Fold this protein.
Amino acid sequence: MKTLDDLLAEGVSGRRVLLRADLNVPLDGDRITDDGRIRASVPTIGKLTGAGARVVVTAHLGRPKGVPDEKYSLGPVAARLNELVDATVTLAADVVGDSARSTVDGLADGEVALLENIRFDPRETSKDEAERAALAGDLAALVGDGGAFVSDGFGVVHRKQASVYDVARLLPAYAGGLVLAEVEVLRKLAGSPDRPYVVVLGGSKVSDKLAVIESLLPKVDRLLVGGGMCFTFLAAQGLEVGRSLLEKDMIDTCGRLLGEAGNKILLPKDVVIADRFDAAATTETVPVKEIRDEWLGLDIGPETATKYGTVLSNAATVFWNGPMGVFEMAPFAEGTRAVARSIVDSKAYSVVGGGDSAAAVRALGLPEDGFSHISTGGGASLEYLEGKDLPGIAVLEKS
């Protein structure tokens, strides 16, 4: 596939470049609580503006229902970009309408226009190819003759959407530095990673991770399970899990996976339980065989964290996706913190698979440079490791 460096070699001074970035950050009102994805977009934006391009950025935030919604405006993102990028960033008031056209027309060399949330336009996520193509045509028209498209939003490359897939069929398309780095890392994991290869999976549901578990089991040396999903595995072993998160329809599947895995899958030995889902709840650490009927498990316990840490200390390659507990609440954050710290302290090539895991690294104050790579795309990372084709990558390979 053609890359950002190829585009820069061609020359971009005075040209308009449409950049698909992933700026989907968590907000508390209009306050950004984790700007990791914004910071990850800065190098590519900086290379383009530094070379004199007139950069038109398109991105989404949250899941608006195809109509403008102030709650999902990119206003806070534009403000943060202006602090991080050595260039003027102007937010258009719409996606491809009058404001977008006038904002783009007003760009000088080395300046940035940020279009309003692309998902305010229902055509972005439409299943109708003609509708998506129409929006892609409007986006391409904004950059006009001599324009180019740079795909740098790895968190959306698994989606066949207008600003990810269809526009790459209309404009000369290039992979941005972030997308290239992500693909290189995942190819390493999917190929022949150094061993022992340890995967840490957490999060809420087994059903969300089933495909990646089945894909990875033959390839890994150890699979460490935590988060809410561990309770369905424990139930498959015949244990009572109280009011913990449980997917009853997945119990037989978990039993099958445990049978097929031999000793590869490691489950918690102890958990932190609470009498309610609340940071102020009464808590207790108990062996997994002693979870009380009306209590729920919200984190792995210290014995499990130590056990997992021993495995991680001997790993050569680690992939981590999903927290070990409800890390957003202090009483249930220690399992995630301990496992993450064990990864940092290991000598392994370590990859954090985006999503809540990446958010946990920053929220818990762990050193980002302690990991070899922190992905910006949890869903995209998992689908790649499942062996699925990612439309946003496939279209770049054909361009």
Summary: The longest helix spans residues 36-50.
